[in-house]
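During the reporting period the student researcher (J.K.) took over the structure-prediction task from the postdoctoral fellow and processed the backlog of single-chain submissions. One of the processed entries is reproduced below for the supervisory committee.
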Amino acid sequence: HVQLVESGGGSVQAGGSLRLSCATSGYTYSTFGWFRQAPGKEHEWVATIYTSAGSTFYTASVVGRFTISLVNAKNTVYLQMNSLKPEDTGMYYCAADHFGGSWTLKSHWKYWGQGTQVTVS
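J.K. obtained the following structure tokens:
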């Protein structure tokens, strides 16, 4: 049974921090990603982590502020968000198992959570 459940969203002031969590079930995933969607906007890829090597990748706008990581059991993925800006506001989604090709495309991921809202004022 495949299940991804996000948590940790909320409302914070600019400059604040949040840690999003994505709890998983079903099997050991090859890759995890985080996407976000602002109102009226397309999904934007934020970060990717490969579970085997631990390699991480980020969209340019979050480099130095966001960190994607896994717990040792590799059943939970985090997105630590520091120095938050109003433009970081959106619904954040956890994704798993990239098909191949560009990981920036939502359609290239197999599994998705329901999302957690992040609002930065």
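The committee noted the following: The chain is about 0% helix and 50% strand.
J.K. will present the remaining backlog at the next meeting.
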